Amino acid sequence: MITEIVVLYVKENQIQQFEDDFRKAGKYISAITGYRKHSLQKCLEINNKYVLLVEWDSIEDHTIRFRESDEYLLWKKLLHHHYEPFPVVEHFYSINIEAV
């Protein structure tokens, strides 16, 4: 399993519309094979800052199955115009370090 982590800065005058559009867009990402779950978290200190966390079975589920899908085009149409600057997407995996 991998976790996609994206820090999003939404244009100040589009915050409510972004949140409404994000609710609509959830059906597109969740339709993809290999998708597990996602959450959007809003920053307490910076009003227009969010973190998107998405769990995938593999990186290919995100970078190929989702990004090359018709669902991605719908996701992109709903959400991408809200970002300033455009976000950097990174992928992480657990290394299972135990506390001593």
Structure description:
- The protein is an alpha+beta fold.
- The protein has a single domain (2-92), classed as Alpha-Beta Plaits, CATH 3.30.70.
- It is 33% helix and 28% strand.
- The protein contains three helices and four strands; from the N terminus they run E-H-E-E-H-H-E.
- The protein has helices at 15-29, 59-66, 70-79, and strands at 2-9, 35-42, 49-56, 89-92.
- Strands 2-3-1-4 form a four-stranded antiparallel beta sheet.
- A hairpin with a 6-residue loop joins strand 2 (35-42) and strand 3 (49-56).
- The longest helix is centred in the N-terminal third of the chain and has 15 residues, at 15-29.
Arithmetic mean pLDDT: 97
Tell me the CATH topology. Alpha-Beta Plaits
Q: What is the number of helical segments per DSSP (H or I, 4+ residues)? A: 3
Kindly estimate the percentage of residues that lie in beta strands according to DSSP. Answer: 25-35%
The global form is: globular
Compact overview of the structure:
It contains 3 helices and 4 strands, in the order E-H-E-E-H-H-E.
Topology (SSEs and partners):
Elements: E1 2-9, H1 15-29, E2 35-42, E3 49-56, H2 59-66, H3 70-79, E4 89-92
Antiparallel strand pairs: 1-3, 1-4, 2-3
Helix pairs in contact: 1-3
